[in-house]
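Figure 6 in text form: structure in, sequence out.
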């Protein structure tokens, strides 16, 4: 069983830790355990409870009303939400619950059902990317077991690769983008999604993959001369220094525009070298690609 901090619950549900503490005092649906130093921690079921309650609360149900619901009532109210945004959030919450419960068969079924109904493109935008964005905080805090991460990412990777292989466009742009992840970064899913977007746009992607030393990147750039470099940074192992990394890329390949997305792209920086573009949201990524 996983254990989660109150900060994990805040990041995953969007409910402030202060509000969660008030809920614990006033209502009966949360009963956290405490460490020997009196720090709250939560189990799988409590995480799923907070996700469900935050969803209903966001779409009009009062907490005092939710507190009186049985588990069946809660489940029925969630399923009955009709707004498309609410249904999307419910499915993302289900993916999170299926991951922490090790229910990987159901996890894949949820994705496959959505692909059949909406297609791979909408599944990536509406489910996969929001799921990855929310769950990335658990990967960074090591509050899920590595095997949970590996199994989930392998399932999603298969769906993304299938989408890449099946995508086609009559438009072909005379532009090349070199996609890579730097040393210590192994989270490929965001980069594979960008590959998918670029291919649909008619751009020629060159995919190097994960854990690429900068000297190897410079070697490929010198010979292939891409129009752009692209990386998607989620969570890099070791003593990675983001600003030094940007400076090094600019020094080695100063003439090539370099686009960066992912969680680390939101890092506050004192100085960004020329020709480096930080994309802090999916909408910014899509807008940039549409303008290539």
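Output sequence:
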């Amino acid at each position: 069983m996983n254990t989660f901090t109150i900060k994990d619950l805040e990041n995953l549900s969007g409910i402030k830790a202060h509000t969660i503490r008030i809920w614990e005092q006033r209502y009966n649906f949360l009963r956290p355990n405490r460490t020997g130093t009196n720090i709250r921690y939560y189990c799988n079921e409590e995480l799923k409870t907070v996700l469900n309650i935050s969803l209903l609360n966001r779409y009009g149900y009062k907490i005092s009303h939710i507190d009186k619901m049985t588990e069946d009532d809660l489940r029925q109210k969630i399923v009955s939400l009709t707004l498309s945004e609410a249904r999307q959030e419910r499915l993302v919450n289900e993916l999170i619950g299926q991951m922490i419960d090790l229910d990987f068969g159901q996890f894949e079924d949820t994705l496959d059902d959505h692909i059949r109904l909406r297609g791979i493109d909408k599944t990536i935008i509406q489910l996969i990317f929001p799921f990855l964005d929310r769950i990335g905080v658990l990967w960074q805090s090591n509050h899920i077991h590595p095997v949970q991460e590996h199994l989930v990412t392998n399932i999603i990777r298969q769906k993304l690769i299938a989408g890449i292989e099946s995508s086609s466009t009559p438009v072909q742009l005379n532009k090349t983008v070199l996609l890579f992840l730097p040393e210590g970064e192994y989270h490929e899913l965001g980069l594979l999604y960008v590959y998918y977007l670029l291919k649909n746009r008619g751009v020629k992607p060159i995919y190097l993959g994960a854990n690429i030393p900068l000297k190897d990147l410079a070697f490929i750039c010198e010979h292939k001369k891409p129009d752009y470099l692209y990386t998607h940074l989620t969570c890099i192992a070791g003593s990675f220094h983001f600003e030094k990394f940007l400076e090094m890329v600019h020094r080695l390949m100063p003439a090539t525009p370099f686009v960066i997305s992912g969680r680390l792209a939101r890092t506050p920086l004192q100085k960004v070298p020329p020709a480096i573009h930080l994309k802090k949201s999916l909408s910014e990524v899509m807008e940039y690609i549409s303008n290539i």
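Caption detail: The radius of gyration is 21 Å.
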